[in-house]
Amino acid sequence: MTLLLDLGAPHIVQTIARHSGLEVTMTIYAVASRAEQRRALQGLSDRLA
């Protein structure tokens, strides 16, 4: 689901997961996505240092 969310398809993820609202979907899956973004940015920072 997180990969679909990363592709910019939050409403599709909501439908597949059968969540009652988009906020539920984002609360569950967006957290993991932010963690992945932090790791990616840290990796970029490490390479640029």
Short description:
With 49 residues, the protein is mainly α. The protein has 3 helices and no strands.
Distance between the termini: 33 Å
Relative helix content: over 70%
Q: What's the number of extended β-strand segments?
A: 0
Q: Treating each run of at least 4 consecutive H or I residues as one helix, how many helices?
A: 3
- Kindly report the oligomeric state of this protein: single chain
The low-confidence runs, each spanning 5 or more residues with pLDDT under 50, are none
* Main sheet makeup: none
Radius of gyration: 13 Å
Shape: elongated
| Tally of domains | 1
Beta-strand portion reads under 5%
- Average predicted local confidence, pLDDT: 88
Secondary-structure element series: HHH
Q: Structural class, from helix and strand content?
A: mainly alpha
Structure description:
This protein is mainly α and 49 residues long. The protein has one domain. It is 82% helix and 0% strand. The model has no long low-confidence stretch (mean pLDDT 88).
Question: Which keywords apply here?
Answer:
single chain; 3 helices; 82% helix; 0% strand
Give me the secondary-structure topology.
Elements: H1 2-6, H2 10-17, H3 22-48
